[in-house]
């Protein structure tokens, strides 16, 4: 929610409306500045205020304590589900409540399309940050040797 009378700490102009990036992060730009998509530069005041990601209530229960789960995002744009009773106290640097959390993993869907490199089937992958790509179903990750295996075809959508 935008606080109406918030002003830019740089130039004193009121802040603009809250907008959302593709990855679901919210921000407010200074109303004295505007983004020029052609030059890919900010014109006028370049102040941007990032808003904290608001946890989204989920229709899922915590497997540990039965409280509802919430979806939240880390500073590094990774999404995770955590127990709504969990909270972080920045003063004492300790977590309280239930400690259940689960990283949101990429979602993989099978496609009826062939890989242009090796003719295997392609799969569509949606990353936890909401990006989608097509990749070869033969590709994998060798956890022991920490190397990618199989065909390396990738197409970002
Ligand atoms: Zn400003
Ligand atoms: Zn819990
Ligand atoms: Zn392939």
Automatic annotation (TrEMBL):
Cited InterPro entries: Topo_IA_Znf (IPR013498)
Domain of life: Bacteria
Cellular component GO terms held in the UniProt record: chromosome
Gene Ontology terms describing biological process: DNA topological change
Boundaries of every DNA topoisomerase type IA zn finger domain copy: 6-15, 59-78, 112-131
GO molecular-function term, one example from the UniProt record: DNA topoisomerase activity
Pfam family, one: Zn_ribbon_Top1
Protein name: DNA topoisomerase type IA zn finger domain-containing protein
Species classification: Bacteria, Candidatus Roizmaniibacteriota
């Amino acid at each position: 929610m935008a606080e109406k009378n918030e002003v830019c700490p740089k130039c004193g102009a009121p802040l603009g409306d809250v907008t959302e990036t593709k990855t679901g992060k919210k921000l407010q730009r200074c109303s004295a500045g505007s983004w020029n998509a052609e030059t890919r530069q900010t014109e006028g005041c370049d102040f941007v205020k990032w808003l904290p990601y608001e946890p989204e209530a989920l229709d899922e229960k915590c497997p540990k304590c039965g409280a509802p789960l919430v979806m939240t995002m880390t500073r590094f744009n990774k999404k995770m589900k955590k127990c709504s009773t969990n909270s972080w106290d920045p003063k004492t640097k300790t977590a309280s409540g239930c400690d259940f959390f689960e990283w949101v993993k990429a979602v993989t869907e099978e496609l009826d399309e062939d890989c242009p490199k090796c003719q295997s089937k392609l799969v569509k992958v949606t990353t936890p940050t909401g990006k989608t790509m097509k990749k070869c179903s033969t590709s994998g990750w060798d956890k022991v040797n920490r190397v990618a295996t199989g065909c390396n075809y990738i197409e970002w959508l």
